[in-house]
Design goal:
CATH architecture of the largest domain: 3-Layer(aba) Sandwich
Distance between the termini: 26 Å
Strand content: 15-25%
Shape: globular
Oligomer: single chain
Number of domains: 2
Strand order of the largest sheet: 5-6-8-7-9-10-11-12
Largest sheet: 8 strands, mixed
Order of helices and strands: HEEEEEEEHEHHEHEHHHEHEH
CATH topology of the largest domain: Rossmann fold
Length: 349
């Protein structure tokens, strides 16, 4: 993995396959090109081509020529999609962080409504340059989208990943905050129109963000998120192997119950000022619905308003109707809280 934009390094530059790849790269500049399969005799190959604004196309390479086969989403219009730009910044302690900023098409790149979108995982996962349904959904509807690989992410070496152990809700969250502040300093983000959203760990980071920084974000969207670390310690499909899961939990979180509660959004709802949208799957085995229900119970106890959406899904919405419903709900929520003026050509990704 290379931070920023994809790059390929060849160990055997004279190999015939390398020569083919170099010719394909030249044919599709600024895109990711992969050979996905070969004929046994090497006479034909199928080729994938994609980018931040290209969800994916397949080609057949035969007799030195490329023939288009199919597009993943034929109706996707690059002119209606956002350009994903790589950036770097220094966190408050000097740690170098990498990320991506996707800008809405047809808009000046200043003073924009911003959605901060931390990835799930989190350990071993990372954001990468390329097409994302979620990101382009928001960008095509007028929102800048910021993704940052906070410490604990994969792709940057073992030390960087382990630097996140014990830092859920602390240094990992500070990295997200620092990236948000960077977008404000750069003039890209309107400081009064920022929402934080994410799924799984990203849902945790969204809610923990509005706990830790109540005046930075106007709203938060938690999707299949972890909201109680003590509950995570006891429930979820990663507990199916108690020996390894206990070791993982000890490494990443420790066993101090007071500390776990202090870093759990559900135990700190009194600090939240932002508007909330909570989305969860009723059949989620990784992060059971009990997580969202406990958060709801805590919010109800202090009279804090929120929006609630649960569907018969697992760890993420996969059914078409439910995904459309989720996107519509998210867009209405974002519009009410940090409202983007939609470009004339806006629509879905």
């Amino acid at each position: 993995y290379q931070p920023g934009y994809p790059a390929v390094h060849y160990f055997y530059p004279e190999h015939p396959t390398v020569k083919l790849m170099q010719s394909l790269d030249a044919a599709f500049p600024n895109q990711v090109v992969r050979i996905t399969s070969y004929a046994r005799d090497g006479a034909m190959a199928t080729v994938f081509v994609g980018s931040d604004r290209n969800p994916g196309e397949m080609y057949l390479f035969e007799d030195g020529k490329l023939r288009f086969l199919a597009a993943a989403y034929p109706d996707a219009d690059p002119a209606r999609l956002g350009v994903q730009e790589a950036f770097t910044l220094e966190a408050r302690d000097g740690t170098k962080l990498y990320g991506y900023l996707t800008l809405p098409p047809g808009r000046p790149d200043q003073n924009l409504p911003l959605v901060v979108y931390p990835h799930g995982g989190p350990h071993g996962s990372y954001d990468r340059w390329g097409y994302s349904h979620d990101v382009q959904f928001m960008a095509s509807n007028g929102y800048a989208v910021l993704q940052v690989d906070f410490r604990g992410s994969g792709g940057y070496g073992d030390a960087f990943q382990k630097a996140g152990y014990g830092e859920w809700g602390r240094a990992m969250q500070d990295d997200v905050t620092d990236a948000t502040q960077w977008a404000i300093r750069e003039g890209v983000a309107d400081p009064d129109r920022i929402c934080i959203a994410g799924g799984s760990y990203g849902g945790y980071a969204a809610l923990q963000g509005v706990v830790r920084e109540p005046d930075l974000y106007q709203c938060a969207i938690g999707i299949v998120g972890v909201y109680s670390l003590p509950m995570m310690q006891k429930r979820g499909d990663y507990r199916m192997n108690p020996g390894s899961s206990n070791a993982y939990f000890d490494d990443v979180h420790g066993q101090d119950q007071a500390g776990l509660e202090a870093r759990s959004p559900a135990y700190n709802v009194d600090k939240i000022k932002a508007d909330l949208l909570i989305i969860h799957g009723a059949d989620d085995k990784r992060v059971p619905l009990a997580q969202a229900k406990f958060l709801r119970k805590q919010l109800d106890a202090i009279g804090k308003d929120y929006e609630w959406m649960v569907r018969d899904e697992g760890h993420g919405f996969t059914q078409y109707e439910n995904r459309v419903d989720m996107y519509r709900t998210m867009l209405a929520f974002l519009d009410r809280n940090i409202g983007a003026q939609r470009p004339a050509s806006a629509g879905g990704p």
